[in-house]
Amino acid sequence: MDLYEHQARDLFAAHGIPVPRAEVTGSPEEARDIARRLGGRVVVKAQVRTGGRGKAGGVRIAADPVAAELVARQILGMDIKGHTVRTVMLAQPVDIEAEFYVGYVLDRAAGGFLAIASAEGGMEIEEVAATRPEAVARVPVSPAEGVTSAKAAEIAKAAGLPPQTADVLVRLWEVLVREDALLVEVNPLVRTPQGRILALDGKVTVDDNARFRQARWGDQDAEHDDPLEAAAAAKGLHYVKLDGEVGVIGNGAGLVMSTLDVVAGCGARPADFLDIGGGANARVMADGLSLVLSDPDVKSVLVNVFGGITACDAVADGIVRAVDSMHLTKPLVVRLDGNNAARGRALLEERAHPLVHQVPTMDGAARRAAELATTP
Fold it and tell me: Domain 21-91 class?
């Protein structure tokens, strides 16, 4: 579960990480009162669980309380990558001398955690990581040893951070451990002209398996989820919205992740992660396909199923049901292999819908789906 920025900020403050004063509201009128309490000039920030808020116009400076009300009114109700802004956070502005990036993320492959840090934080950190990877330090962290003062100093030195950031690195590790987080990051962590270190923005992802220990979060996020993710949850589907044009459906998280990589390797971007599970039936397949096709960003759909417990003929039956119940306008590429694959392929051939394409291999199916999604 991803927390909102203001929730991450509150966690940071509770663990001794310095943050600017801030308050949250869903009312433009109250935004004016908050700005007055904070000193007049404020930063108004959309509270949505997605990146790119600044570039979308969801983070703005308001010069005074009247402007704060106007800006809040403009931001509230905005759509940012499919997320409707229902609350804004107003924070005291900070004079910035330097921006840094620090974070910890679970490294499943290594069976530990990874500290990621850079002396070049801010909105362009992803571009920095892609174009100049040497500017981003990656330091393994043992779960048993954690981040001691010595380890924090090692991370800071590797990233070229000032020594006074080491205390924040220790405290950020405490946030990760005590809050059962899979990811914690501060971007930017800033140094003011007076030498203060402050966390201006943060992200925390809490392990869903630890909700019984983190009961205060409850189901508070359900009503604010991406509409497609909320619809998927209501049907019991494992779905995550992504920023692409090729809808992806598969059975098993590993297969779906591999499919995302292959689609990206073919020059297209996945629009979603949808795992119909190891024992999916025709209804689950039909529900999943209907959901993915309802995404206006999707230009083509790739169904990649390797039948085991899931029988390919059941998947094909679900595809036929979905196609027959809607006016299909987007191309669908299907790769079936494994349990009852021959029967599944025969069902699709019998239906012979002109927008349904069967391809025998995963690589070939991904290429075809990418072509259909990116060709005008």
Answer: alpha beta
Please report, in angstroms and rounded to a whole number, the separation of the first and last CA atoms in the chain: 37
Q: What are the Cα distances from residue 340, in Å, to 233, 301, 337?
A: 28, 22, 8
Amino acid letter at 126? E
Asked about 97 being catalytic, the answer comes back as no
Instruction: Please report, as a single letter, which amino acid is at residue 188.
Output: P
For helices 282-293 and 227-234, the axis angle rounded to 10 degrees is: 170
Q: Tell me how far CA of residue 260 lies from CA of 76, 110, 153, 197, 264, in angstroms.
A: 33, 22, 37, 39, 6
Active site (annotated) includes residue 239: no
Domain boundaries, the chain: 21-91, 98-216, 225-374
φ and ψ at residue 276, rounded to 5 degrees: -80, -5
pLDDT > 90: what percent of the chain?
A: 68
Confirm if 344 and 364 have CB atoms less than 8 A apart.
Answer: no
* For range 84-103, the mean pLDDT: 95
HSE value, Cβ hemisphere, 13 Å, CA-based, for 204: 23
Q: Which residue has the tokens 């380890």?
A: 151
Tokens 């024992």 belong to: 279
Q: Report the length, in residues, of the chain.
A: 376
Catalytic residue from among 120, 185, 229, 245: 185
Which is the catalytic residue, given 4, 69, 101, 245? 101
Which CATH superfamily does the domain covering 98-216 fall into?
Answer: ATP-grasp fold, B domain (3.30.470.20)
Tokens 């019984």 identify what position? Answer: 212
Predicted local distance difference test score (pLDDT) of residue 219: 54
Report pLDDT for 266.
95
Is the separation of the CB atoms in 305 and 297 below 8 Å?
no
State the pTM of this model: 0.66
Could you tell me whether strands 300-307 and 246-250 are parallel, antiparallel, or unpaired per DSSP bridges? parallel
Under CATH, what is the fold of the domain 225-374?
A: Rossmann fold (3.40.50)
CB 201 within 8 A of CB 91: no
| Mean pLDDT rounded to a whole number for the chain | 90
